[in-house]
Write a structure and sequence with these properties.
The chain has about 140 residues and is an alpha+beta fold. Helix content is about 25%, strand content about 30%.
């Protein structure tokens, strides 16, 4: 990737569960920053390294995923909450979003090695399948 200033940025917006949601993806030379905000808030920050130096990472030895499998996050990705995640449920849901988004980026470009940093600011933090899929689809438009 060539170094450019300012860092390339893509944006998308849509209504998720009736709430306007903004997604921004900024590609820095060393990191990919993705923010998902509702009402301008950011409550949780998570990072996911894509450069897996573990030679026993299971995904690298498996055959390519089928279409059905691409909906699942890659098993070797390890999201870590940096800020926020005030309770176990919020942290778990945030890490699920982060692993899925990082999986999309890694599937799109298998040679991508930058760390993905995700800022989440969802008004409602609930484990709704429809909200999850809608949010991930909105992010997919930016990456």
């Amino acid at each position: 990737m060539t170094s450019s200033y300012p860092a390339p940025t893509k944006q998308a917006a849509g209504h998720i569960d009736g709430i306007l949601t903004d997604v921004t993806c900024t590609s820095f030379s060393d990191k990919i920053l993705i923010t998902i905000t509702q009402a301008g808030r950011l409550a949780q920050w998570i990072h996911v390294p894509l450069d897996v130096s573990n030679p026993t990472a299971p995904d690298q030895y498996l055959p390519s995923a089928t279409t059905e499998d691409t909906l699942l996050p890659m098993t070797h990705l390890t999201p870590k909450t940096l800020l926020g995640g005030s309770n176990q449920e919020r942290e778990t849901i945030g890490q699920l979003y982060a692993a899925q988004i990082a999986s999309i980026i890694a599937a799109k470009n298998p040679h991508e090695k930058r760390t993905v940093v995700i800022g989440l600011g969802l008004s409602k933090f609930e484990a709704s399948r429809e909200v999850f899929y809608d949010t991930v689809d909105l992010v997919r438009k930016c990456v």
